[in-house]
Amino acid sequence: MTRATDGATVQQELELPPAGGPQGSWQGSGRHPRASPLLAAVLSCLLPGVGQLYLGRTRRGAMMVVVAVGCVLAGVALLQDRVGLARMLLQPDWLLGLLAVDIALLGFRAFSVVDAYRLGAAHLGHGSGRRRAAVVGAALVLGLTAAPHAVAGYYDLQAYDLLASVFGSSDSGWAAAGRPAHGAVQPVPGRLTVLLLGGDAGWGRTGLRTDTMIVASMEPATGRAVLFGLPRNLVRVPLPPGPAQAFECRCFPHPLNELYTYAEEHPELFPGHRRPGVTALMGAAQQLLGIHVDHYALVDLKGFVEVVDALGGVTVTVSQPVRVEIDQLGEGPGGPRFYLKPGRRHLDGLTALAYARARKETTDYDRMRRQRCLLGSLARQADARRLLRVFPRLVPVVKHNVSTDVPLERLPDLMELAGRRRVNLATVGFGPPGYVAGWATGGYPVPDVTQIRTAVRAMLAGHASATVAGTDGTGTAGSITATTRQRPGSQGSGAPTQGSGVAPQGTGTAAAGSGANGQGSQATAQAPDACSAAG
After folding, report:
1. Tens digits of per-residue pLDDT, 58-100?
2. Cβ within 8 Å of residue 374, ≥6 positions away
3. Which of 403, 395, 410 is nearest to 166 (CA)?
4. 227 and 426 in contact (C-beta within 8 Å)?
5. CA nearest 259: which of 238, 290, 280?
6. Strands 444-447 and 436-440, how do they pair?
7. Measured between alpha carbons, how far is 198 from 298 in angstroms, rounded to an integer?
8. CA distance linking residue 485 with residue 26, whole number of Å
9. Residue 138 near residue 117, CB atoms below 8 Å
10. Contact 136, 75 (CB under 8 A)
């Protein structure tokens, strides 16, 4: 610009501000000069793309937001079908796929965070204190972004390890449909039957004794399940044709809980399985009940103790005093001895095991009922949140203490049964006098095989009330218990089904297996965790 002053010509240069005013320069670059790179990184950590939108990178931010929202909606849709999700999580291939998805999502979110920080930090001077602080903050944000993905990946790998190491990859040949029937032993179409064994190699014992033996027959399509309790002191239990020839009575002449150890010592009599003891017990259970047993699950009692402790203990309501003796499980001859007084009691693992095993001042049949009650209480209290919290502790416990041949393809069926809104559950304890044909030397009961098979057929057919009778050997009727489990919040949750599975002689049913007074088909409800001497 040129102007004249007092006849002199003066040339002056004027610096004009950039077009658009003092703030006009950031409009071309898409970045606000005062935008915080750390805040942009935090916003993109919460939802990828929001940090870019904050910095004015509309197109880039919008694309990231669309992808992020799509992932969130897909996750929400997947959570709507919890049974389907559970079935997916029980398949190792799907677990590997979910791990790949988790890694991909981590990469996407990490890129979004780093990109937002880079865009926001472009105006900061290199080596400045402000830039160094922003770098430290961005690293923390990146760590927070990766943390949930690392936890999810850890749980995913733990679940994969558990499924791959405990469960078989395919049906090992026990499936009822693939085996010929022998005599009165018949397949049960549409049912999955599993022999549940609790093994105890206690102090001073030779070999493992299966003091807990329950045959669980489940029908996933209808939600019906029946538990058949096998008393450990039964003698002369029939055996399959092959091993039966080794005994004059064509049966096992000793208590049933000794059969496992006997078979392990005489594997030539029980071929066809890597565990002769399991082969023997499954064959005996089949001959006694008259039905095929598809699979087995053997749990060492040390594992039971560790599971209870991992879950934080179990709470039961004791209605009668029970004398318990703490067992150190092979680490010594025994621990404290005391009475569990009536009332609501919270038990740790060793005390819960002692409570389940106590029998010196009660009967074996009381003990069987306490075991069923304790397991039921533990199952009710082991909610999904608690299981998720202790899952890393449970994985090694299950791996080291549980043996089963249940194949992976069967697990979704079991999960479908567990996820049903209504599950009709009936239990039968085959005790005297209704299921005993006589008594052997030493006072051991001899099973009435005909009566037991009749009861089994009736229970599986769903019309037990017309054919089944008997008592538990404790002076009270009620060897048959029928209950209906509903999801929490449903009307009548956990209450017994009125009159279901009641014997015509006036036996009753109760939620925990206790008997009625024998004067009528009256269903009796107890507290969910009540464990009385009669139930």
Report:
1. 999 999 999 999 999 998 988 887 767 777 788 888 999 999 9
2. 314, 316, 352, 355, 356, 531
3. 403
4. yes
5. 280
6. antiparallel
7. 6
8. 65
9. yes
10. no
- 114: which strand partners? none
* pLDDT higher than threshold 50 for residue 333: yes
Q: Which amino acid is at 303?
A: G
Do the domain assignments include residue 19?
no
Domain residues for the domain of 55 are 25-166
Residue 99 lies in a domain: yes
Enumerate the H helices of 312-448 as residue ranges.
Answer: 349-357, 364-381, 384-401, 411-418
Domain assignment of residue 59, yes or no: yes
Could you give the number of structural domains in the chain? Answer: 1
Tell which wins on pLDDT, 115 or 131: 115
Helix, strand, coil percent values for the chain (each to nearest 5): 45, 20, 35
- Residues 410-428 have a mean pLDDT of 69
- pLDDT tens digits, 373-393: 787 677 677 766 777 778 888
Q: Exposed, middle or buried, 183 (CB in 10 Å: 0-12/13-18/19+)?
A: exposed
pTM given for the model: 0.69
Q: How is residue 125 annotated by DSSP? A: P
Q: What percent of the chain has pLDDT over 90?
A: 29
- Domain-located, residue 159: yes
Name the strand (E) or helix (H) holding 480: strand 480-486
Q: Distance (Å, rounded) from C-alpha 452 to C-alpha 449?
A: 5
